[in-house]
Every structure is written in C-alpha cells, then in structure tokens.
Amino acid sequence: MEYSVEQRRIKALHRYEILDTPADGCYDEITSLATKIFDVPISIISLVDTDRIWFKSTYGIDSDQIPRDPGLCSSAIMSDDVYVVENARLDPRTMANPLVAGVMGLQFYAAAPLTTSDGYHLGTICIIDKNPRILNCKEGSILLHLSRIVMDLFDVKLQAKIMYKDLHTKVLK
Fold first, then answer.
1. Which domains occur in the chain, in start order?
2. 61/98 Cα distance (integer angstroms)
3. CA 99 → CA 54, 88, 102, distances in Å?
4. Which of 25, 41, 74, 152 is deepest in the core (most CB within 10 A)?
5. Contacts of 81 (CB under 8 A, 6+ apart)
C-alpha cells in the first residue's frame, strides 16, 4: 500500500507523540520570547493534524486548537520557507478567512515550518498581529531559527522516549 505525502506527514507527526500533551515550559518560553522579539501580541507553536490545528504553546490567546480549515497553519506547512501574510484583509489567500473577517480580526501572520529531519512539516511557529506589517529578511531568519529550536526540542524529547522504551524493554527481559 502506497501512502500519500499527507498520510506520511501525519504518520511523522504521530511518531513524535506530542499531540494533546500537557503544557511544557520550554515551549512556552519560546512563544513568549517570539512575541517580544517581533513585538506582536500573539505567538503559537502549532501542529497540523488530520482535522485540527493543535497548539503546543500559545502566547496571547486562550485556545488549544482550531479546526484545520480555515487555519492559516494548514497553508503555511505547504512552504519550505517562511509564509507571510502582511495584510490579511487585502490578501486574496486570506480575506474570506473567519480569523480575518471575524472577531479575531487577524491582519498579519508569519510562520516558519517545523520540519523533521526527513522533510515533513509537522506544524509551525507563527506570529500574529491585528495590524498589517512587513516581515524583513532578518526577522524571517530569526523565525526560521526559532522553528529549528522547537524541532530540536521535539527531537530530543522523542529520542528520550525511545531510549526509555528501549531501556524498559531490556529491564523486563
């Protein structure tokens, strides 16, 4: 049976066993830092699942997930680079999005993909503002660096789980 790219991406996401896990201070520090670096009110570390976008960490909003459609992170994971919407109310990709046209009133969105070593985009680290803005090259580079730090943390925690399971298996034998 051959799997689609999306099915392989979801399999890679589940390999990390991070969906629906409790809050973790190291990720909260990163989203807090992102809001300060970029002077935005909202930052999110998101994971794009089959039907939802689950938030591992948020700063500036009180939510733990949204439906995958109309989430902007679903579009952002299609790019290998930083995905930017400078003015969502004028951008044809986003002007009808309820997060833009609705109560939240999102206008600026920038996200860097959380990319596994085998090339799958699990989600994003994104920054959001209610005002339009421009993301310069230096800021884009910083956002990419933050995404790599998040992925490094995911990888370290995954390796620790694997080592623990291996050790536990050996002890039981």
1. 5-172 (3.30.450.40)
2. 16
3. 16, 9, 5
4. 74
5. 112, 140, 144
Where are the alpha helices (H) located in 21-136, listed in sequence order?
25-38, 72-76, 98-101
CB crowding 41-67: b at 16 or more within 10 Å, else e: ebbbbbbbbeebbbbbbbbbeeeebbe
Q: CA-CA distances (angstroms) from residue 78 to 15, 60, 72, 139, 168?
A: 20, 25, 11, 20, 38
Q: Report the SS3 class of residue 94.
A: coil
Alpha-helical regions (H) of 16-136:
25-38, 72-76, 98-101
- pLDDT by position in tens, the chain (length 173): 688 999 999 999 999 999 999 989 999 999 999 999 999 999 999 999 999 999 999 999 888 998 888 778 888 999 999 999 999 888 888 877 777 877 778 899 999 999 999 999 999 999 999 999 999 999 999 999 999 999 999 999 999 988 877 665 666 55
> What tokens does 152 get?
């490094």
